[in-house]
């Protein structure tokens, strides 16, 4: 999870370089101060997600993040999981008017009706994709042959030919809120590409890409 951009998932303009923490580890500025973001960066961001439920959750949260900071979504993640039955596609696909009303009244999540509808739409699309090998395999099939090797955030793209192709393919399968920039952020967050800065202690830590 994480809509990483050239200014980092926190959306802060100062997120432009590497900071060496008191533990001696080098991280991007966005992950160097807030303990929540630091832990997320050290343990989750960029690590492979290959199961259906995990992939559906990441796509859902990336959609809710659109227009907001990733920190906002991360702070609400436990509330999102409780509200959306732990992002079980089978459960969410059955949501109707009663569940939508409940979600719109839930102050613990982002109460955006279009994004809530998209989560339900995408749950149904996830189930249909099982006939084609499943959501996780589908998304991973768009892994490029090379990954970026950025030294600064200015060198990190916000989309790629692969994220554009993934976006188009998911839309064809009935998914919503899966634009190419959002899908690039997804690809970063789940390890399909490695956009950790070269000097970061997390570079090449996913096992997907060699050092």
UniProtKB/TrEMBL annotation:
<dbReference type="InterPro" id="IPR011257">
    <property type="entry name" value="DNA_glycosylase"/>
</dbReference>
<dbReference type="GO" id="GO:0006284">
    <property type="term" value="P:base-excision repair"/>
</dbReference>
<keyword id="KW-0326">Glycosidase</keyword>
<dbReference type="Pfam" id="PF03352">
    <property type="entry name" value="Adenine_glyco"/>
</dbReference>
<protein>
    <submittedName>
        <fullName>DNA-3-methyladenine glycosylase I</fullName>
        <ecNumber>3.2.2.20</ecNumber>
    </submittedName>
</protein>
<keyword id="KW-0479">Metal-binding</keyword>
<dbReference type="GO" id="GO:0046872">
    <property type="term" value="F:metal ion binding"/>
</dbReference>
<dbReference type="GO" id="GO:0008725">
    <property type="term" value="F:DNA-3-methyladenine glycosylase activity"/>
</dbReference>
<keyword id="KW-0862">Zinc</keyword>
<keyword id="KW-0378">Hydrolase</keyword>
<dbReference type="InterPro" id="IPR005019">
    <property type="entry name" value="Adenine_glyco"/>
</dbReference>
<dbReference type="InterPro" id="IPR052891">
    <property type="entry name" value="DNA-3mA_glycosylase"/>
</dbReference>
<feature type="binding site">
    <location>
        <position position="196"/>
    </location>
    <ligand>
        <name>Zn(2+)</name>
    </ligand>
</feature>
């Amino acid at each position: 999870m994480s809509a990483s951009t050239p200014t980092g998932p926190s959306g802060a303009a100062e997120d432009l370089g590497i900071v060496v923490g008191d533990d001696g580890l080098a991280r991007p500025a966005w992950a160097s101060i807030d303990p929540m973001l630091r832990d997320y960066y050290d343990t989750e961001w960029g690590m492979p997600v290959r199961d259906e439920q995990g992939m559906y959750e990441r796509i859902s949260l990336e959609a809710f993040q659109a227009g907001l900071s990733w920190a906002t979504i991360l702070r609400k993640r436990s509330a999102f999981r409780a509200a959306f039955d732990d992002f079980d596609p089978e459960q969410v696909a059955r949501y109707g008017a009663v569940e939508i009303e409940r979600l719109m009244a839930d102050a613990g999540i982002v109460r955006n009706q279009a994004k809530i509808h998209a989560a339900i739409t995408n749950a149904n699309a996830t189930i249909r994709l099982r006939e084609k090998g499943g959501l996780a395999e589908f998304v991973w099939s768009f892994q490029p042959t090379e990954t970026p090797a950025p030294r600064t955030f200015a060198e990190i793209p916000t989309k790629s030919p692969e994220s554009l192709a993934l976006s188009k393919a998911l839309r064809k399968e009935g998914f919503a809120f899966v634009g190419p920039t959002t899908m690039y952020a997804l690809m970063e967050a789940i390890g399909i590409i490695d956009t950790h800065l070269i000097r970061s202690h997390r570079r090449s830590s996913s096992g997907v890409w060699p050092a």
